[in-house]
Write a structure and sequence with these properties.
By secondary structure, the chain is α/β, with parallel strands linked by helices. Among the domains are: 3-220, no CATH class; 378-599; 607-684, no CATH class; 801-892, Leucine-rich Repeat Variant. It is 40% helix and 18% strand. The strands form four sheets. The chain has a 15-stranded mixed β-sheet. A twelve-stranded parallel β-sheet has the order 3-5-7-10-13-16-20-24-28-31-34-36. A hairpin with a 6-residue loop joins strand 1 (251-254) and strand 2. Helix 14 crosses helix 16, helix 26 crosses helix 27 and helix 29 (850-863) runs antiparallel to helix 30. The longest helix is centred in the first third of the chain and has 30 residues, at 3-32.
């Protein structure tokens, strides 16, 4: 064994020898306090963020506004917490990674991950796993080992048996047939990708809901205990085996009731057979086929791992670990590998060496529902490559974009099952990350995806949905602690974009960094999401202007860009030292020396002429099915033309097509199908709108909900009486009825909306009252204007601006002493262009508070009348605060 491997391995094993007993004692307190670790965001960054938010009349607590109306029983508490406390993201990730950074014993590290999963705390509080005895076959098999190694090997074999028995206890409530169905189908359920070659019984593919019903009956604490028990045995016995085997060459396979234990010597071995645990002492080894699916502990050597799917630290209905302690290693896999977890924990831990990771799909720190997937590489110059095999069609077919779902990625099952925790952590070294779509700190649907790199000059390259991309009610982060880094993405949602109530954070703590890409605009808030981009130091380069904060659903999105220091350059639309407020809740602030302003560009989209309804004959049922399927595709890439043709054909068919869609497809309408419904029914006209009345009276809640969505979007006035009736309903139907009442401007609905209770519908009710214009709702709107959460406050301000009595109240509040409500009222008066508020705003433009002055001037400019603009210019002429002058557009 080369000396460098021996030194690295011996150091790790000494730590194991010292730490395994202590790990048992401290596993519970460490795991249960994982979320309480020291906050990873330093005070200077927090102060800069708070200051920037204040410029937009926001506070840190405002970021905790309610994210979406959806709940499900698969939600992990850490995901829910971070959605409503975005600045806690670095601290939460640090809590998960703390034992790995500290080289804590393996059981402690695993316990930290398990604590976040269902029944994790239960498993950690009840640690006793019944001992299992090995039979005569095992005693005979260990004779192939050196004498001093036989005792540790038998004890480790006993732990394998006990771990297997404990894991099986998780499935006691399932019949043997159900157990087999679940275990043979879970990889297929996790992958959702036929090209990986995974197969499941026909019963599972025809009825996947049956698999979910079986998963709901699993007793998860037994799975977690089984994994921790085996980890403790490895920590206890690996040092003794390494010492006893010395220069021994050979392979011994020890059978147990929980699966085989294989011990390999210091030679260059090739392992191909499946084992529960494979421990290799040293040598340049190869792991192929079945050998990649169990636990692997390799103590030394330049090793090669070649797996199909799943494998290499893939936890599906189990805790699975691949731990390589030394060497320059090469890891290759198809999918569900290299630290992947779904209904389990998957860990790939590499302690040292310049390593290469290549794989296709759901790899390199990836997870699905009730899973944790972690790839932890402590040191070395490493290469991570994911994607390149499975075309992202039809969305990116023309661009030849491929899926990756890797490098810190997690995903749930839309629409009703939350996802898990996927993390890639690299401790040190100049690393390269190459990925397709969905990678490098990305997530989808109530999950947590994170890439954390602690040091080195790193290169990030991806295709789409990458580098802190949070899509749909989810949390995504890319956390870079040090080094001169380059971030580049071909196109799409990138560089800290929070979309559809998603929360994204990209934080680079040090170095001269470059951010580029076809659509790079750091910090994007879209569809009520939050995009947070923090650059702590360095001379940085940016491709596009930052912090677009796009409005949606009658409310706003938060976009926060903060560059705290350095001489930075922007390709266009922003400048070094500039403060700019964007959208409703967007702020971009470069807190460094100003440079020259750069220009902006904009482009317009061509319009498309729709055909005349009724100009085409009604086709056959199969042809309607085909047209509808094409009309419901996502309009991206080469699919745009397909969608346009299909929808135009449905419009040309006219009322028969609309009636067929309402009768056959309304109950199952998802967000993509809704676009097809809206465009088709809108083009056909009021006669098609009338088809929605019968579904509103249905006993099928899905049909009612879909019909309400269409009534609101189409403003189908004939549905008014039915909407009033449905306002008396509860839950989702009531929420959608509120939106419909707003769209139809039902004045008679105001008393039902201006009521206390139901905090989850406050935003919708405030927006509805604004659309209706309801003076009798004035007291309720004022209370929420002053004390509601962020979206509700702004919605109430806008609602007050919709009728004279409300405007009078806004002018009064704008002139008052309550600072934040005053700024809120000024912003609303500006948005509503209330001319007779100009005098009150001009008075406020003389306030001693610089941000009150800034808010007043911006409101005057928004009103835009000659007098308002003149007063704004007068205020600007006497303004002495350099930051406020910069935000007002004045350059030094």
């Amino acid at each position: 064994m080369p000396a460098k491997w021996r030194r690295q391995t011996n150091a790790t094993l000494r730590g194991l020898r010292r730490g395994w007993r202590a790990s048992i004692l401290f596993v519970l307190p460490l795991a249960s306090s994982a979320a309480a670790a020291a906050d990873g965001l330093p005070s200077a960054e927090r102060a800069a963020i708070a200051r920037a938010l204040d410029a937009a009349n926001l506070t840190v607590s405002d970021l905790g506004y309610r994210k979406g109306p959806i709940e499900d029983r698969y939600r992990l508490p850490v995901v829910h917490r971070l959605l409503h406390d975005p600045l806690a993201i670095p601290g939460a990730v640090d809590g998960l990674l703390a034992p790995f950074r500290a080289r804590a014993p393996l059981p402690r590290s695993l316990a930290t991950l398990i604590a976040h999963l269902p029944d994790g705390e239960v498993a950690l509080s009840r640690r006793a796993v019944p001992q299992a005895r090995v039979d005569r076959r095992a005693a005979e098999a260990v004779r192939g080992l050196p004498r001093a190694a036989r005792g540790p090997a038998l004890r480790l074999a006993g732990a394998v048996a006990a771990s297997g028995a404990e894991r099986e206890r998780a499935f006691r409530s399932l019949s043997p047939a159900d157990r087999e169905l679940l275990k043979t189908s879970v990889a297929w359920l996790a992958a959702e990708q036929d090209e990986l070659g995974l197969r499941a019984p026909a019963e599972a593919t025809r009825h996947p809901e049956r698999l979910w019903s079986l998963l709901d009956r699993v007793r998860w604490q037994h799975i977690w205990r089984a994994g921790l028990h085996l980890a403790e045995a490895v920590a206890r016995e690996a040092p003794a085996l390494r010492s006893a085997c010395g220069a021994w060459r050979g392979n011994v396979r020890i059978p147990t009731t929980g699966g085989d234990l294989c011990i390999g010597g210091v030679g260059a071995d090739t392992h191909t057979r499946h084992t529960a645990l494979l421990l290799d002492i040293g040598g340049d080894d190869r792991y192929e086929r079945g050998a990649c699916r169990g636990w692997i502990v390799d103590l030394a050597g330049d090793d090669r791992y070649q797996a199909s799917a799943p494998g290499l630290g893939a936890g599906l209905l189990e805790v699975a670990v691949l731990w390589d302690l030394a060497g320059n290693d090469d890891y290759r896999a198809a999918g569900l590998a290299q630290g992947f977890g779904a209904f389990g924990v998957g860990l790939l831990l590499d302690d040292a060496g310049d390593d290469t990771y290549r794989a296709d799909l759901l790899v390199q720190g990836a997870a699905r529902t009730w899973g944790v997937g972690l790839l932890a590489d402590r040191a070395g110059r490493d290469l991570y490559q994911a994607g390149g095999r499975f075309l992202h069609a039809p969305l990116l077919a023309a661009e030849r974009g491929t899926y990756a779902m890797a490098q810190g990625f997690a995903i749930g099952y839309r629409p009703d099952r939350s996802g898990g925790i996927g993390i890639l952590w690299d401790g040190a070294g100049d690393d390269a990350y190459i990925g397709g779509t969905y990678c490098q700190g990305a997530s989808y649907w109530f999950s947590l995806g994170c890439l954390a790199d602690d040091g080195g000059n790193d290169k990030y390259a991806a295709f789409y949905y990458a580098q802190a991309s949070a899509m749909h009610l989810t949390v995504a982060a890319l956390l870079e602690r040090d080094g001169h880094d380059v971030y580049t993405v071909h196109m799409g949602a990138i560089h800290a974009i929070g979309h559809d109530w998603g929360v994204a954070m990209l934080w680079d703590a040090a170095g001269n960094d470059v951010y580029s890409g076809g659509d790079s605009r750091p910090a994007v808030g879209n569809a009520n999401g939050i995009g947070l981009f923090i650059e702590s130091s360095g001379d940085d380069r940016y491709f596009g202007p930052p912090a677009p904060a796009n409005e949606a659903r009658g409310s706003g999105s938060v976009a926060l860009f903060v560059d705290m220091a350095g001489a930075d350059k922007y390709a266009g639309g922003f400048a070094d030292g500039e403060l700019r407020l964007t959208g409703r809740w967007g702020v971009a602030w470069d807190m460094s020396t100003p440079t020259a302003r750069q220009g902006r560009e904009s482009a317009a989209s061509p319009s498309v002429q729709k055909p005349a309804p009724g100009s085409a004959p009604a086709p056959s049922e199969p042809e309607l099915e085909r047209l509808y399927a094409d009309a419901c595709l996502w309009e991206v890439g080469t699919a745009r033309d397909t969608v346009r043709r299909a929808r135009h054909r449905l419009i040309a068919i006219g009322l028969p097509a609309a009636r067929w869609m309402v009768d056959r497809k309304l109950a199952a309408m998802d967000s993509l199908a809704q676009r097809a419904f809206e465009e088709t029914l809108a083009a056909i006209g009021p006669e098609a709108h009338g088809l929605l009345l019968e579904p509103l009276r249905s006993r099928d809640a899905r049909r009612v909900a879909s019909a309400l969505r269409l009534v609101a979007s189409l403003r189908a006035g004939a549905a008014g009486p039915e909407v009033m009736r449905l306002l008396q309903a509860t839950g989702e139907v009531r929420r959608l009825a509120i939106a419909a009442a707003a769209a139809l401007r039902l004045r008679e609905a105001a008393p039902l909306l201006a009521t206390d209770g139901e905090p989850e519908t406050e935003l919708a009710r405030a927006q509805a009252l604004g659309a209706i214009g309801a003076p009798d709702a004035l007291p309720w709107l004022e209370r929420r204007l002053r004390n509601g959460e962020l979206p509700v406050r702004d919605a109430c301000a806008d609602a007050l601006a919709a009728f004279p009595e409300g405007v009078a109240l806004l002018v009064e509040v704008a002139s008052g002493r309550d600072r934040e409500p005053a700024r809120r009222a000024m912003q609303a008066l500006g948005r509503a262009r209330v001319e007779h508020s100009v005098d009150a705003l001009a008075a406020r433009a003389r306030d001693p508070d610089p941000f009150l002055r800034l808010t007043a001037v911006l409101a005057l400019r928004a009103i835009g009348s000659d007098r308002a603009l003149k007063l704004a210019e007068e205020a600007l002429a006497r303004e002495e605060d350099a930051g406020v002058r910069a935000a007002m557009g004045v350059r030094p």
